[in-house]
Specification:
- Its EC number is 4.4.1.15.
- This is D-cysteine desulfhydrase.
- The chain is 43% helix and 13% strand.
- By secondary structure, it is of the alpha/beta class.
């Protein structure tokens, strides 16, 4: 059992992993059931997940709801494990510690890795592997205090207090999580039409918008090896309410 936004990539991947392993997946999603099902939500149903709608809730209320649902399943005699929101925990972040080390093997002279920051685990793993100075996070507005979450996971990975400084941009959130901004639209168009790569408007599109802003401001400069991490999320493009504006 896990929780997320209606178009949660993590929830969809949890459903896929559960299907592969022969387990039942229950997804507790914020919001109300939409009139039409598309994007990740369509895949959730295709993968056989049970979807529970939690209504208009904040992070804490969503967390409380998923644990209440889990306890209800346990009372019915079904052993139930809760995976944290976004899959982000110290354990989950270890996956991107490995990813960061693999990236270093491929690009030893990397100066900056740019990554979208949702629930914080991806950035935390990369910071542990590469060092805080080499990771530029772009906040997507998925959680209330992304910096605090990343710091907590970094400290958990290291087993000590984090004394460094995170490079975390908050200028691409716009009016809130998943809001399609002109900067994100520009980034999605630019990468599609120059690189043939498709970004989603919630995560990778925001990361690219943050990178473009960093280049324009001189934070990222020519001559240094910069990597934009494409962390997936393409199905969410087809479930985004404003996707038609990208055409």
């Amino acid at each position: 059992m896990t929780s997320g936004a209606p178009q949660s990539n993590h929830a969809r991947l949890t459903a896929a992993a559960a299907a592969r392993l022969g387990l039942r997946a229950v997804l507790v999603l914020a919001g109300e059931a939409p009139a039409t099902v598309g994007g990740n939500l369509l895949l959730d149903h295709l993968l056989g997940a049970d979807v529970v709608w939690a209504g208009d809730v904040d992070d804490d209320a969503l967390d409380a709801r998923v644990h209440a649902e889990a306890e209800a399943w346990r009372r019915r005699g079904t052993p139930t494990e809760v995976i944290p929101f976004g899959g982000s925990s110290v354990t989950g972040a270890r996956g991107y510690v490995d990813a960061g080390r693999e990236l270093l093997e491929q690009v030893p002279d990397v100066d900056t890795v740019v990554v979208a920051v949702g629930s914080g685990g991806t950035m935390a793993g990369l910071v542990h592997a590469l060092g805080a100075e080499h990771v530029l996070g772009v906040d997507t507005g998925a959680v209330g205090d992304a910096g605090a979450r990343v710091t907590r996971f970094v400290e958990g990975l290291a087993g000590r207090a984090f004394r460094g400084s995170l490079r975390l941009r908050a200028d691409q959130v716009g009016d809130g999580y998943s809001h399609l901004t002109p900067a994100v639209t520009e980034a999605v168009h630019l990468v599609a039409r120059t690189e043939g790569l498709v970004l989603d408007p919630v995560y990778t599109g925001r990361a690219a918008a943050g990178l473009i802003a960093a280049v324009r401001e001189g934070e990222v400069v020519t001559g240094r090896r910069t990597v934009l991490l494409h962390s997936g999320g393409l199905p969410g493009l087809f479930g985004h309410p404003d996707a038609v504006r990208l055409a």
